[in-house]
Amino acid sequence: MKKIKLFGFAIVSLLAFYACTEEDEVKLTEASHRAIVTSEMNFENKINVGGHIDFGDISSGVVSRTWTFPEGVADVSTSSEAVVKATFSKVGVHNVTLKQTFANEAYADERTTPSGSAELDTTIVVTVLGDVTAQIQANYVNADGSLGAELSLVDNAENVITASNYIRLSYTAEGDPINFIWNLPNAKPNTLQNPEGDADVRYSKVGVHDLEFIASRSRPFGGDTISIKNFIKVIPSTDPVILDAVSDKDGKVALEFSRDMDAATAAKTDFSISIETAGGAIISPQIASITTDPVDENILLLELEGERVYNNDKVMVSYTAGELSTLDAVAATSFTDEALVFNTVNMLENSNYDYSFENTTNTNWPYQFWGGNWGEYDFSLSSVVSQDGSKSAYVEFRPEGGMVISHTDMLGENAIVSLVAGTTYEVGVWIYIDGPFFTAPYPTSGNFVSDLRFYPRSFGFEAATTFFTEDFPVNEWVYTSAFITPGADEDVNFVIRGYNVGNGQTLKFYMDNISVAEVEIRP
């Protein structure tokens, strides 16, 4: 047994000897590979003036290196160290260079083949930003919308403006700020965040109000704030009080006036509401209360007694002049049968569906090859008229013709909107008839008037949005819509079907701003 152990030990010792001998003979060569980092590389090497950046050469196989900084820019001019900390004192865009010599032909960055040289030059661009500074300007807006006189921007200026009038705000800034905020107490709107260009704001509340403007950037951090105390003084107006809009809010009727209103002067008996339901019934509810909106005091909220308005109602509002007045004591005038327009949120605005025809081409609205009269149409995008933006779709239904199209995005994929089972949606579109309309009896044959309808590809519902009857308004934009309630969850790519069979004439119209909005309809 002992001999076996010794023999085994001898073999192990011999193997170990040869292994060590072979290992000593292996020549290990360090790879030459460029790798450079900076402490601000994830932030485009942008720093504030007086700030610093750490430059690191973590390359392998480096024999020598030289960092070179532009003269008079940093507290370092040259260095051969692997890590250099440089503080920059001059605003601007500066090139920092690194010259490296490697032991062998070097790999550059992430490349998988050698660069062909043992010497590599690298340039790192550093942007040194100065302090953020902002300048603002405010002007009155004339009655015709043109730019008026400039306002003073000193504390206690109390620039005088008549209630319900506008001012126009603009700004310039240095130091590359990216966030801009206007804080405007008692203006409408009272906050503006990153406005595109100049902004018009309206003052309706009598009194003296401040102004604040903030320009800032998050990295490198910096900002400038302009605060003006008692910037503007709003005085009462003798101008007529204008009803700007009638809408809905939480089932109530919202009356938006041109100036802040005094709800205490509103008598319920001076108002009347008429509701025509989808079934044709006429409801004349009593008004339970009248209050001002807690945020916008130029809006009166009419709560109905035991009733509310729904999106498929037709609502008319009338007012007989009484004691209703603004907070600056100007009486409101009568109005009759002002139609309520519901506030809805267009789901297509957050989808890949080009609802406003602004960002696609004709090829993104392809024919669906139904054959027969369904291909008897012409479709193109147009800038002649638009309901919003600069473009709309121009459509011609040929005599006895029709149209079947769908919509794809710029990648050629079906444009999708997701609908939820049991939820009611309003599908709408704005139509502009290129008049004159029909000059012969209409329809000339068949059982149906010309129309426009939206379907999902599953044809699980039909939204008949538009019927082109003889009394359809011409040469103006008209909103048309239909209500649908999907029976199943569905990612919808709409098929838009136009019908002109029965009409022996070409039907020409523009359409714009297709919308799909979640709504509540009368039970």
From TrEMBL:
<protein>
    <recommendedName>
        <fullName>PKD domain-containing protein</fullName>
    </recommendedName>
</protein>
<feature type="signal peptide">
    <location>
        <begin position="1"/>
        <end position="21"/>
    </location>
</feature>
<keyword id="KW-0732">Signal</keyword>
<dbReference type="InterPro" id="IPR035986">
    <property type="entry name" value="PKD_dom_sf"/>
</dbReference>
